[in-house]
Amino acid sequence: MMSFEQHTWPFRVMTYNIRLDTIIDGRNQWYFRKDRVINLIQHYLPDILGVQECLPKQMTDLTSGLSNYGSYAVGRNDGKDNGECCAIFYRHDRFELNDKGTFWLSETPDKPGTKGWDAALPRICSWVKLRDRLMNKEMFYFNTHFDHKGLVARRESAKLILTRIEQIVGYATHAILTGDFNSGPESDAYRTITNNINFADAKLSTASVHSGPDGTWSTFDVKYDIGDRIDYIFITPARLEVLRHAHLTDSNNKFYPSDHLPVLAELTYRN
Hints:
Blueprint: E1 11-17, H1 30-44, E2 48-52, H2 56-65, E3 69-72, E4 88-91, E5 95-104, E6 124-132, E7 137-145, H3 151-168, E8 174-180, H4 188-194, E9 200-201, H5 202-205, E10 231-235, E11 240-247, E12 263-269
Parallel strand pairs: 1-2, 7-8
Antiparallel strand pairs: 1-12, 2-4, 3-4, 5-6, 6-7, 8-10, 9-10, 11-12
InterPro entries: CCR4/nocturin_mRNA_transcr, Endo/exonu/phosph_ase_sf, Endo/exonuclease/phosphatase
Protein name: Endonuclease/exonuclease/phosphatase domain-containing protein
Domain Endonuclease/exonuclease/phosphatase: 14-260
């Protein structure tokens, strides 16, 4: 039996592309599935959650439905409330927010609304500095969404994020990077992150067998095969241990709540 002194109070991290609110989705438009997204999150109760493709109205709905969470989000178009955000939610009872920020995935990362390299759209990475109330440890959490078209942009975005994490965190503490990277494990963007000795893919680091399909892009309809793996949780392996990892396939009446599967990991502190 684990002694009290050894107990490190594991915590759960989830990344989830919730799909933007658009009329072209018909029966799968946000209005019809928002409660399913919120119920899924509340069922698994991640301690920290990163979502992508979140528009201002969706942020309002999530904030209302996730009242047990604090949050941070800015729109990618202006750094305020215009455009999609990479929102971060954290459990009030577990974590305290001590700092936050956003930078753009471009050659001018501190200039709001900028597109980088061959990207089709402005892209961002938002981050928070949290204090774990139970363990009195500091945690940095980064959440991002890479461009869907720009191959160069995805590679350079990975490089930029690693540089910024080193500047903000210094790798001397616990850091997590999550998001929709629009990149498979064979891509330059993925290899840029995993070839860095300070980061590891949580799926490949889990102490128990990964649960769920290999991919994360799903469409809404369960009758179709799961597509590529493009959503990830990366951790600093010197500081964090992955106990469990899963791609969640919860559905309602044969439809997923989003066109991506949420990724969930249970982590604990190494030191």
